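Bug #2210: token dump truncated for Abasic site processing protein?
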Amino acid sequence: MCGRVIVDYDENMDVAKGTELASWLEQRPEGYQATWNLKPTQPLPVAFTDHKNGTHRFEYAYWSLVPIWSKELKTKFPTFNARSETAAEKASFKASVKNRRCIIPVTGFYEWTGPKTQRTPHAIFGPAPIIPMAGLYSWWHEPDAGDDEGWHLTATILTRASAGVMEPLHDRMPVFMSDELLGDWLDPDTVGDQLLMGAVSDASLPISEQLREYAVKPLRGDGPELILPA
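Reproduced locally. Full output below:
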């Protein structure tokens, strides 16, 4: 699973230049603030294609996907992660799999090990300064709002069975977005199905083999000190 991420673009945005990812991350999302302890239901930066005009968008979303048919901006069960193996079949996610796919560019994330009474967080980083995670998004509309107002962008991070350095930490890990499938994934004209989900999941394995991790102190508050080795 993935329930805590790091978003620190200040020195990393320029590093992405010259890559396919760079065209989606030309500027920071409006209201950007670096965070080393971003949690579900907080604003999560996502990049996606605007259905109306095909432009690239990079902005904040509510981190927990809320389907359009929900009566309120929350769900009865956690939706900050979606299993890549079953998302195309699940009522909450299948419409987003079809043509509302996004990437979540983070600079790192956390996972925990140890007994419940003494959990140890591990900071995890990728082979490049920015790790694009595969995700899904949905627009949720306030029931009593007008057609042009009351819209909320919501999103979830896809997960798959762990591999590489993640295996000892947890049985699930994020699906990392490969460069070769990035264009198709973000193209709403590419109809998403379980085959696409499987291809993106499989293509993420080489990235997982290049991850690095180390233990950090318990996460309290926010700040760059959270990623210092314990």
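Output looks complete on our side. The chain has a mean pLDDT of 93. Marking as cannot-reproduce; reopen if the truncation happens again.
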